[in-house]
Amino acid sequence: MSVETIKWVKGAARIIDQTKLPHKFEYIYCRDVKTMWQAIKRLSVRGAPAIGVAAAFGVVLGVQKFKGRDKTRFLKLFNATCEFLGTSRPTAVDLFNRLSEMRAVVDLNPQAGVPALKKALQLRAMSIFQADRRVCRQMGGHGVKLIKNGMRCLTICNAGALATVDYGTAQGVFYAARAKGKKFSVYACETRPLLQGARLTCWELMAQKIDTTLICDNMAASLMASSKVDIIFTGADRIASNGDAANKIGTYMLAVLARHHGIPFYVVAPGSSFDLKIKSGRQIPIEERKSDEVTCFAGVSTAPRGVKVYNPAFDVTPAKLITGIVTEYGIIRPPYAKNIHARFANR
Ligand code: MRU
User: C or N terminus of the chain, fewer CB within 10 Å?
Assistant: First the structure.
């Protein structure tokens, strides 16, 4: 893959501005934590794993200009930076898991002075970046076994290179299948209201010369009823310890339909997207976004002024509708509470 969604370049975090795709390719150079916070908030960088890496780089940006050796002042700035980044988006747990990893650097080095901590935080952020590249390819390696020649796959939102550092989770499975020379095709749900499927997934898949067909979200049922879908792959923003999985709004609808039509439904997500502190999906905070995302289409108003709007960005698919969860460690199958615990017990 040649898409570099997020990268550390000469003291700045360089991100692709995903709000401009597919028609304009522009970078944003985040040189301070506020710019990174805004980039996450307005979805210039998005997708759970990419948000996690952005948060780690955001911490580095927040402390890198600190002058002097006063550790108390440094820790005050560090803690405020982590808290600030944690307010950018609530659902993707990668953001909070990666911030915890950054906090652990400080907590586990109580004797370290300011220069050593700054260095250690930079190294940790780079290792989070590298780990994302590695685990996405590992997930692709496991997921590829599920794709047989001739299969018609369905996906929603963007769980590709643009949602990670450079490869993807659910879409990474497609890239791994393509690399193995498998013949398959993909239906991409457009993913209203912000069209991550139409704008981002189609852009990525077409660049990789994968046979891609765009559908409106409300076409999925009729597609399945006419036996045109063999398997479904989605990403996840937060997976509870019982296997309930939050992902882009519309995912639950696909899982219900898949069960009705006897189609396997797989979630592809790395360890950083699991929240083992919560028992079920009922505890997952769901982001609600601004009403104009729904009342407007491509900047043009499509609804009467003043209409009430409900705009949750995510929904939760109950574990019982999920055939398997593809992780970097392999595919986790039901019963999820037991098998997720067994997989991550030593984490
Ligand atoms: O609001 P977004 O675009 O950040 O939502 C992204 C998704 O829901 C993705 O499917 C999810 O983060 C998994 S991406 C690997």
Answer: C
Under the banding of pLDDT at 50, 70 and 90, the label for residue 345 is confident
Question: How do the domains of the chain map onto residue ranges?
Answer: 6-137, 143-344
What whole-number distance in Å separates Cα of residue 347 and Cα of residue 140?
21
pLDDT (average), residues 78-107: 98
How many other C-beta atoms lie within 10 A of the C-beta of residue 284?
A: 21
Confidence of residue 346 (pLDDT cuts 50, 70, 90): low
Reply yes or no on domain 6-137 having CATH 1.20.1080.10: no
Superfamily of domain 143-344: Translation initiation factor eif-2b; domain 2 (3.40.50.10470)
Q: Higher-confidence residue: 308 or 346?
A: 308
Residue 1: pLDDT above 90? no
Q: Token match 């990403």: residue?
A: 235
What does pTM read for this prediction? 0.97
Kindly list the protein residues whose Cβ atom lies closer than 6 A to any atom of ligand 1. 43, 46-49, 92, 157, 159, 163-164, 169, 196, 235-237, 247-248, 313
Taking the centre of ligand 1 as the mean of its atom positions, its distance from the CA of residue 164, in whole angstroms, is: 10
Is residue 93 within 8 Å of residue 77, measured between CB atoms?
A: no
- Which residue's CA is minimally distant from atom 15 of ligand 1? 159
Select which of 94, 166, 237, 275 is catalytic.
237
**327: nearest Cα among 204, 169, 214, 182:** 169
